[in-house]
Amino acid sequence: MACQCENLxxxxxxxxxxxxxxxxxxxDYAASTIPDLRTVAEFERICRTIIGNPSSxxxxxxxxxxxxxxxxxxxxxxxxxxxxxxxxCSGGTEALNTAIFGLRTKKSKFITTAIEHASIMKPVExxxxxxxxxxxxxxxxxxxxxxxxxxxxLDSSRENIFIYSPVNHETGSIQLIKEIFDAVKKVNGIVxxxxxQTMSKLLPNYWACYADCIALSSHKVYAPKGSGALCIxxxxxxxxxxxxGNQENGLFPGTPNLPGIAAFAKSITILRDDFIxxxxxxxxxxxxxxxxxxxxxxxxxxxxxxxxxxxxxxxSLPSIDNIEKxxxxxxxxxxxxxxxxxxxxxxxxxxxxxxxxxxxKERAMKSLRISLGKFSTRDDLFKLLHAINDYxxxxxx
Length: 397
Known about the structure:
This protein is α/β, with parallel strands linked by helices. The chain has twelve helices and twelve strands. Helix 5 links the parallel strand 3 and strand 4.
């Protein structure tokens, strides 16, 4: 959350002088993953041994530039793209904003779905206020758009730009990736893909070939925060938003965060090697969570579609009168969960994404999102369920 967030201020006031000593239970991997220590070691290695600026014309600079290009090749190889199509930046939001604003022309039409992250919705809303043609495609109860509706919104007289995330950050729902790409390409449009959640949930052959631009983020794939990439096909021209040096072909000027980039590349190597085992682990835990929720002392309604990716489960507790009080109670137990994206200003409102999926506001007001990762355990789930039951008993639910 941003430092101005009222939720954060309330938590600081409540807990700032009284540190929580319970062993942490972290169930918010969709907001940020716990860094794999191998990526932290890679970050440290670069800090200790690679001192030069990659743009400097001397040996230290050459060593730094070689590390940068090796990282670029690692990302490109995993996606099945070319190294020259990978541009490093600070993360998903910077990548998406750069692509969206860098592609705009007077003939542009920006199209997205009703359940996107703020890093897509806010730029599109801003462009609409500035007079650009925009369109928001509704979704069904499974969080998917109707391809025929998309086809009707695509305007052959315009430069169509479709921006979306294949995997929703709040429910784990999966869009029809290939069908979307095929529909947009029929009118020679451009697909900007927010793959921040997708990268750790789906193998790249399911999504990486179905976009013209892809936004990635390091801290969603078990690497330290502060790095990411914008991948751009060679035939797509994006104007820079900032100006300075010629780093990243002038698209992201300034000295690159080489330790963060190398750690990001390391996380992708680990992801490639461990994907099958990690996915099996998440499948098992997600099913365990569904089974355990049935044993709660209060009613539970699952909001995530059956076709969702493993590791993200959204559900509602309709008998709880104030979901924020429950989250604060769990925080006191050092259990970290969320309701929405960490970029949301407040949590004490109905989930916009759930309401866009046709769920009534009262149920959407009482939703929680559990997002698991490769370091999650069954013990974490037992502690969560025990804490929720404890809260319900203390408050007579």
